[in-house]
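Below sits the subject:

***
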Amino acid sequence: VCTTATGCKKGTESAVAGGMYFPTGIAWDSDGDLVFADIRIYRIDEFTAAGTFVRAFGEGVIDGGSSFQICTTATGCRAGLSSSNPGSLPFPYGVAIDCKGAIYASTLGSGTGFLQIKRFGEPSTETPPCPLPPQTPGSPSSSSSSSADVLGPPPSTQKPKTGKPKLTIELNKGSGTASLEAIVPTAGTLQLHGKGIRKAKKSTKRPGLLELVIAPTKKVKAKLEDTGKATVKVIVGFVPDQGDSSTQAKSVTLKMARLFWG
């Protein structure tokens, strides 16, 4: 674990316990541990917030066997396998954790067992739906002795100002795509379009983080395969359930690893 005090350098690509090769999606659980997918070594890794390796899981991550395994520093770790077996993680791309603590991983690629979302949970982990947040006084679903308390004041005739989402774009180096993260200020729909990219959108019922993939069109993908990079125009629009819409535009240079065959 490096800091500003120690100085930092490029890490070494490795599949050992605590190593990483091509980390992609990342999430954190209720204990503050970080969980991420490693697309090149076919497994999910978990670290504490301080950077200590906790475990990794996938198919054959201890001994290369064709079964779901959980490896630690004590057992040693290796790259996982890519297959159609239930516990396998072929090209894991994104991760998420629900309120019960179960981990969801999306897998890419083609063929049987690919293009799936898989759920991993501790023994007896309950499935959603998750409990609703507690109601605040005056909300429509809370009890009240006065209809005025339930309904609240009459709505304003003017739209409230919502502000623009805070955007972060991270290149998925070598894959020809990028990840867009947007912190939205209220409930609404995040929309993604632009020259050279596919349209995408996602809605939310509360403020928070939304993620979308910036994926190239067929024409741009062909250029990426030929030259290794291509610049696209990304237009991000946010349409709140209440308030003013906003639009932001950015240029992004996508990169794709080129394969050379001898």
Notes: The longest helix spans residues 218-227. The mean pLDDT is 84. The chain has two helices and 15 strands. The radius of gyration is 22 Å.
